[in-house]
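Researcher: Can you fold this with flavin-adenine dinucleotide in place?
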Amino acid sequence: MGAGPSGSAAAYFLAARGARVMLVDKASFPRDKACGDALTPCAIAALQEIGVLPDLLRTGQRIAGIEVVAPDGSATTAPVPAPGGLPVPMLVVPRVALDNAIRERALRSGAGFAGGVHVGDIDRDGAGVIVRGTSHERPVAFAAPVAIVATGASVALLRRMRVLARTPEMMLAARAYVNGITGPSDRVQVRFDGVPLPGYGWIFPVSGSSANVGIGGVAGPAGLGRVGPPPAALRSFLRRLSHLGALGGGRPETPPKGYPLRVDFPHAPTSAERVLLVGEAAGLANPLTGEGIDYALESGRIAADHAVRMLEAGDLSQARFEEYGRALRARFERLFAFCRWLRGWSLRPPLVNRLVRAASRHTELRTLLLQIVLGSRAVPETPPSSAVLRGLLARLS
Ligand SMILES: Cc1cc2nc3c(=O)[nH]c(=O)nc-3n(C[C@H](O)[C@H](O)[C@H](O)COP(=O)(O)OP(=O)(O)OC[C@H]3O[C@@H](n4cnc5c(N)ncnc54)[C@H](O)[C@@H]3O)c2cc1C
């Protein structure tokens, strides 16, 4: 249940392999979701595999590069290479369109859809699961051998199922759409100036004259909480950008909309009896960048593959469900450890200043950091020690 990128991707891959699937969401679609709307190279590759990239290329904003602005205002720009054979490295696509495109793809492949169904609990009987919810205040139920939970950062269902004992670590973020922007519309801007660290602000163009502008960071008084709730923090960030002329006279067209992000993978539970968790329901948002769409799509595919294999083998033992967690960790654990380590460094503005200045002079460092953070290059087995990084920066500065 959940028809965001993770649930719809899982439904598509299951239906494409001939499984009977019912996709359930409390919302009616198309629906909006607070997001930066940026699709990284890995997300582009996953969307190509799902078969929705050609449509998204027609409406999405094509992005060719990234500009990073340090806390002291110094900046560096780097091109983003497209994944092998794909026409574009990054796109910005408003979630109201993206999520509906993936959901419709799942439906065209044979999945059913029930919108407006708020799932309250999942019961297990000997033969499988019974997903119980309400639709227009009437009880509804769906029986299946396996359920995939794709409910994003909302943890109410997982708490009720006792999969989560408490609310896990969250980051917070908010975005608004700004109209009337002038300036480059083929690159995204990531800004560490005027934002509590660790965290960052962004300007992601959605057309030649409008952009998704947002701010994100760790929750609590040591993080984004220092400047108030995310929508208030975003308002002050927008004022600062206007003052700097970074919006080229653009004005917010929508009020700031905030939402939490679950960044607790790899400690998050990934399965329960007869249940697999995908996307942010498994804590899969990047603790440094907040990116989560690629991980949602990829975990949806991994879960679908795993479910099909279990069903074909007729083995729905707990051990097989736990194997799924190992598959997720094999794909994401190192990336998450590295990004968490880098996030610790990004607490210190002078270091970020030096890193951005060094990156602007050294093409290799710039490309390496960009590719690692975007997940398009393998990260080192163990993050370098603080002494090694300091030495490296001293040599490059
Ligand atoms: C402000 C902000 C900016 C972001 N920017 C980016 C970005 O630029 N790029 C990027 O890659 N990621 C970004 N992210 C992260 C990204 O939005 C998420 O990681 C991604 O949406 C996770 O997908 P999902 O399918 O797991 O969950 P979601 O997209 O959250 O979907 C969950 C679905 O489950 C449904 N649901 C929840 N509970 C129930 C229930 N009880 N019953 C029925 N249905 C239920 C919801 O209605 C929803 O449709 C951002 C997040 C935020 C908050």
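Model: Folded with flavin-adenine dinucleotide in place. The longest strand covers residues 170-179.
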